[in-house]
Amino acid sequence: MKLYRTGEVARRLGISKMTVLRWIKSGKLKAYRIGKEYRVPESEVLRLLEGKIPDKVVIYARVSSRDQKEDL
């Protein structure tokens, strides 16, 4: 069983390392703690790459004047 470091998982999934850590702590991503670091099994990485966890997209737009509102 191949284990990946959190940085490797983040790079493969195109997300930040902090997101990987947050997913581990919330239970969304299974991982093993080895010393002070986490290792993620290859099966978990493949599961995420196959899209079994739905993406959530949040869009935030801030305008500073009424004139800019039309550009949205």
Quick structural overview:
It comes from Thermococcus paralvinellae. The protein is α+β, with helices and mostly antiparallel strands.
What does this structure look like?
By secondary structure, the protein is an alpha+beta fold. It has one domain (1-72): Multidrug-efflux Transporter Regulator, Chain: A, Domain 2. The chain is built from 4 helices and 3 strands. It has helices at residues 6-13, 17-26, 42-49, 66-69, and strands at 3-5, 32-34, 37-41. A 3-stranded antiparallel β-sheet has the order 1-3-2. Strand 2 and strand 3 (37-41) form a beta hairpin. Helix 1 (6-13) crosses helix 2 (17-26). The protein is elongated and about 55 Å long.
CATH fold-level assignment: Multidrug-efflux Transporter Regulator, Chain: A, Domain 2
Strand arrangement across the biggest beta sheet: 1-3-2
Question: Biggest sheet, in brief?
Answer: 3 strands, antiparallel
- Rg result: 17 Å
Q: Judging from the principal axes of the Cα atoms, what is the shape?
A: elongated
Give the name of the CATH architecture: Orthogonal Bundle
- Count of individual domains: 1
Q: Distance N terminus to C terminus?
A: 48 Å
| Topology order in helix (H) and strand (E) letters | EHHEEHH
**Which stretches are low in confidence, meaning pLDDT under 50 for 5 or more residues running?**
none
CATH class: Mainly Alpha
Tally of helical runs: 4
- How much strand? 15-25%
Query: Mean pLDDT, as a whole number?
Result: 86
User: What class would the helix/strand composition place it in?
Assistant: alpha+beta
In helices, the fraction of residues equals 40-55%
Tally of strands: 3
Protein name: Helix-turn-helix domain-containing protein
Organism: Thermococcus paralvinellae
GO molecular function: DNA binding; DNA strand exchange activity
Domain Resolvase/invertase-type recombinase catalytic: 56-72
